[in-house]
Amino acid sequence: MKICLMGLGSVGQGVARVFQMKRDEIKQEYGLDLDLVAALDRSGAAINPEGLDLKLLLETKKLTGKVSKYPEYGEEGVSGLEVLDRVEYDCLIEVTPTNIEDGEPALSHILKAMGDGKDVVTSNKGPLALKFSELARTARDNGVKFKYEASVGGAMPIINFAHETLSGCKIESIYGILNGTTNYILSRMAKEGSSYEQTLNEAQEMGIAETDPTQDVEGEDAACKVVILANSILKMDVTYADVEVKGISQITPESISLAKKEGYLIKLIGEVSPDSLEVSPRLVKEGSPFAVEGTLNVATLKTDLADEVTVVGKGAGSIETASAILSDVISIWKTK
Q1: Based on the domain organization, do 59 and 202 belong to the same domain?
Q2: What is the CATH number of the domain that holds 276?
């Protein structure tokens, strides 16, 4: 399978590492040869129809910060759409930074690939939160596979789990912790009694929180995931504008301490149901499935036949997110 990788930030590099780690094993087990023929970042692209050397690609990115510096096959200033026009590939992996204003450039990349009859795997929440119906329709109209497990919960299995393992059930609602950064911050505040500002700084120093943490701490990232789950699993037709959103930046050590005295923790919870699309800080019982710490995500799916089913997994991390992308690529291959 010839693969075009758009984005070589944390997740994109994770994808390259995972391909490097698992390539022989996957070829032996599934007969799938993972052949990365193009990679793109803000600087430009590296394109080789015979396949890029993954070790050299990662070393080049680490040393120079630019994929365009890849020896012999690097090109400065080339755009994603140009790459998609020039390269012979089977599957696009789109992991450029999330943009919840207009979904670009990922939206154009994905629509272009689908229009050209290519399968798409993405972790990018922006296009899904803004244009889910259009993307699903375009994939269907062009007869291509569109997979996005990595867009919600990192390594926590939820979308494919709902569609495949729970395929005989009607899923009535989903309730859970959908952002690893905020869960880390609230967990540390509860354990250490530290302030929000102090804990956020610590999370940024550790690389858990972004330099600009707005999307995470103000609930925007979790709201995007609420939209994806609502559309994909509950078959709703909603966008980011339909979600009521409140973040964690106003949570104080005093409010966390008061909750603990009553046997509760404060967590940022996403709720998905026909009656409610909401992200907000809520009280959860200590010892409950939602009392997870660190960057873990957890979600409970309420079903008609299986009652409540809860899934847990790491919601952040380049390798963890890449594991979900890899599972989607393998899933596409198995249907060929």
Answers
A1: no
A2: 3.30.360.10
Query: Within the chain, where are the H helices?
Result: 10-30, 54-64, 80-86, 106-115, 125-142, 159-160, 180-192, 196-205, 214-217, 220-232, 253-261, 318-334
For residue 191, give Cα distances in angstroms to 80, 117, 179, 194, 256: 45, 51, 18, 8, 10
Question: How large is the average pLDDT for residues 190-197?
Answer: 94
Q: Which domain, by its residues, includes 86?
A: 2-155+318-334
Angle at 94 between CA 212 and CA 298, to 5 degrees: 65
Do the beta carbons of residue 13 and residue 20 sit within 8 Å? no
Read off the DSSP letter of residue 45.
E
The Cα 335–Cα 132 span in angstroms is 23
> Does residue 313 contact residue 177 with C-beta atoms inside 8 Å?
no
Give Cβ neighbours of residue 112 (< 8 Å, ≥ 6 apart): 81, 84
Q: Give the tokens for residue 134.
A: 């259009």
Provide the whole-model pTM. 0.94
Q: pLDDT tens across 256-271, in order?
A: 999 999 999 999 999 9
Structure tokens belonging to residue 177: 């912790």
329 to 90, 93, 204, 269, 326: CA distances (angstroms): 11, 9, 31, 30, 5
167 and 252 within one domain: yes
Per-residue pLDDT averaged across 283-290, rounded?
96
Helix/strand/coil percent split, the chain, to 5: 45, 20, 35
Check residue 112 and give its pLDDT: 98
Q: Residues 194, 310: one domain?
A: yes
**Active-site residue numbers?**
225
